[in-house]
Structures are given as structure tokens and as C-alpha cells.
Amino acid sequence: MSNNVPIIIDNGSFEIRTGFASKEISEIKKIPCIVGRQESEIFSDNINSKFYIGYDALNKKSNLTYSNPYYFGNITDFDLMTRLWQYILNFELKINPQEYPLMLTQNSFMKSQQKEKIFEIFFESFKTPSLFLGCQNSLALFSKGYTSGLVLNCGESQTTVVPVFQGNKISHASFYTELSGNTINKLIKENINLDFIYNDLKKEREFFYIFKSNYLSFSKDLSNNNKNIILPDGNTVQFNSNIVDICNVLFYPRNYNITSTSILQLINETIFELDKELK
């Protein structure tokens, strides 16, 4: 058994975060969960086809077709996901996976067949000496020093509400909704002219990150009607301050003509399903 520090890979549909278990948060590497391939090779069986991963794909100027191999808590393409993991281990962390124990995070609703496939890939292809597949909701509690609690996890493609008791997920009281970061992205697109980032995935991701990090709010006082965002490439985007409360869609989706279950409903359903001793 290896005595090396374990490697952690936190899978997500927007980005994958990875690093050594002994390192500080500032040293975590974040890789966009994107794989690009030349459009001319999409239907080719050529084993030498070139793939571009993460920032290499976003920075590539030629026409690429992008794929997201991890979406809605499940792996949509194991071949591409394996390439992504291999890129992380070999080029980002620069380690031999045969020499390090690994911990991967999993969505609380990941199918058992997918879990089995993950173990198969890491043990048979990467030859890793040991592998632990950890529930993201339980790990979130552990990071705060708790083993029991109710965890709300809002990601790019899915929002989950999962009760955890003594480190274990309570499956029958766990729920999810399609309301997520992507829902907010779509509403932003409907309210702001984003023609300047047409077909430029890198610019689009930069814009959404800046806008959601700095302007969306439930309580900020924006006295002016119009605001401007200056993007890293110098482009300026103007928007009306009325849309800063667009994140309310997560709580009141019907106000935006969306029929998905709200976060408030999920929490209520979860509490209702719990045993009296745990409420």
C-alpha cells in the first residue's frame, strides 16, 4: 500500500477541482469539465484524433465541438471522462496514479452502474492502489466538523437537498431539481444582449462568472437603473438592475414561468419524509 498523500478529485459539471489532501485550498487546481474535438473529426474513428481538455479546449481558436462528459450528476461519456481524469493526473498533478491512493466525489443520486464503472476504470486502467468514492453532501458536512445535517448543494446542472445522519445519506428523504446555475444562465441570456460572445464558450463562461459573482443578489441596493460590466477582453455589457434578483428563480420558479420544483419545496419534502426523531 502506498504511503503517498491521497489525491482528491471533486467531480462537477462546471469544473473539476483536484489536489493533494495535505495542501491548502489556495493550491487546489480547477479544470473546466470540457472536452473539445475538431469538428472535422467528430464522426471519425481515427484513434489519433486530437482532444483538447479544460482550458486547452477553451483557449483553442480553431473550431471545436465541445462535450461535457459529466452532467446532472452522472457521467454522460465514460471515454471522454477517462481522458479528463487522465489529463488531470498526468498533466495537472503530474503524478503516477499507480503510486497514490485516490478519493473521488460522487453526486448523491449517481447510479450504481456508474459507480461500478468508475472503480473499473481506476483499478484496471489507472492501476490506482486504492479508491474511495465519497458522497459530496456528506463530505460537505465533514468539512465543517459535522456528521449530521441537511445539505443543500446548488450546482451548474442540478440542485440537491440531502439529509445526512452520522455520515450516511438518508436516501428516501433526498430530492433534487433541475433548477440550477444553468437555469439562471438561461434567464440572463433572455434579458441581456450577448451577441458579442456568440460561439465563444470561454467568453460566455467568463461573463456568467463575473455577473453571478458580483451582481446577482437578494438584498443589494442598486439605486441606478443601468449597470455596466467590463469583461477581461475589454467588452462592456450594459444591463438593467431589475434583473439582479433573477436568482429568486431557485425559490419561486413559477414567477418565471418555470414548472420545476423549487428549493423551498425540496426542503419541505425532505423534512416531511424524515423520522420524527431526526426532524
Q: Which stretches of 5+ consecutive residues score pLDDT under 50?
A: 43-48, 219-223
In this structure, how is the largest beta sheet organized?
Answer: 5 strands, mixed
Helix/sheet category: alpha+beta
Task: Estimate percent helicity.
Answer: 25-40%
The total strand number stands at: 16
Number of helices, where a helix is a run of at least 4 consecutive DSSP H or I residues: 7
The fraction of residues in strands falls at 15-25%
Q: Could you give the distance between the termini?
A: 42 Å
Gyration radius, in Å: 21 Å
Describe the structure.
28% of the residues lie in helices and 24% in strands. The chain has 279 residues and is of the alpha+beta class. The strands form 5 sheets. It has a 5-stranded mixed sheet. Strands 11, 12, 13 and 14 form a 4-stranded antiparallel sheet that branches. Strand 2 and strand 3 (29-32) form a beta hairpin. The longest helix has 15 residues, at 78-92. The model is unreliable at 43-48 and 219-223 (pLDDT under 50).
